[in-house]
Amino acid sequence: MKPKTIIEKEIVDLSATLKPIKTQVYTWAEKNIFLKWGVLSRGKFNCLECTHSWKPQSQSKSCDKYIKCTVCEGRLKMKQYNQVHFKEIEYSAVLDVCGGFQVVRIICSHKHMKKNTSPTYFHKEVMQHWINFKGEVRTMSLTTNVFSNVYDAWQYYSPLEIRPRDFQDSPKFRINPYKIYPNIKVLPVLKRNGFKSGFYNIAPQILFTSLLKDTITETLLKSSQTSLLSYYLNVHYQNIKQNWQAVKTCLKSKYQIEDFKIWEDYIALLNWFKKDLSSPAYVCPIDLHDAHDRLVVKKRELQRKKYLLKMRSEIEQAQVKYMKEKKQFFGLIFKDENLTIRVLENVQDFLDEGDILHHCIFTNEYFKKKDSLILSARIDNKPIETLEVSLSKMEITQCHGNKNSYSQHHKVIMELMCKNLYQIRSRMKKKKVENC
Question: Which InterPro entries does this UniProt record tie to the protein (predicted)?
Answer without folding.
Answer: PcfJ
